[in-house]
Design a protein that fits this description.
By secondary structure, this protein is α/β, with parallel strands linked by helices. It has one domain: Ribosomal Protein L13p, Chain: A (Alpha-Beta Complex). The protein is about 30% helix and about 20% strand. It has five helices and six strands; from the N terminus they run βαβαββαααββ. The strands form two sheets. The protein has a four-stranded parallel β-sheet with strand order 5-2-1-6, covered by helices on one side. Strand 1, helix 1 and strand 2 form a beta-alpha-beta unit. The longest helix has 13 residues. The protein is globular and about 55 Å long.
């Protein structure tokens, strides 16, 4: 018996809406990464984009457990000597409320061309208003 591989455009893409208010950051990122990859579909293929589009609202109201607000650190480096920057989760949430969620989701996607393509299929908003009403995203319970 041959292995079934779906053709490009054969998979149906849906829109999912995730409300992050009061939910744990990592748990939301896991569900979003699963939807972006398409692992919830029976025709999942690891090397193809067969996932769905995801809209996350209230990302600024997502919570973290323990003392991660002060202890969790994000690092960035420009490539120059001595340019390593360190930011805590609390600082990042104050300055860029959606970036922590995006970093968490990207860490759960493949680190190659496919992962960079899939990362473009997620829209994250700090508040409850979003611009994807025309796509009619279906609420997804995390």
């Amino acid at each position: 018996m041959k292995t079934y591989v779906p053709k490009v455009g054969e998979t149906e893409k849906k829109w999912h809406l995730i409300d992050a208010e009061g939910k744990v950051l990592g748990r939301i990122a896991v569900e979003a990464a699963k939807l972006l990859r398409g692992k919830h579909k029976p025709q999942f293929t690891p090397h193809m984009d067969c996932g769905d589009q995801v809209v996350i609202i209230n990302a600024a109201k997502a919570k973290v457990t323990g003392k991660k607000t002060d202890d969790k650190k994000y690092y960035s480096h420009s490539g120059y000597f001595g340019s390593l920057r360190e930011t805590t989760y609390g600082q990042m949430l104050a300055k860029h409320p959606t970036r922590a969620m995006m970093v968490a989701i990207q860490g759960m996607l493949p680190h190659n061309r496919l992962g960079r393509k899939l990362a473009k299929h997620v829209r994250i908003y700090a508040g409850s208003e979003h611009k994807q009403q025309a796509q009619n995203p279906q609420p997804y319970d995390v």
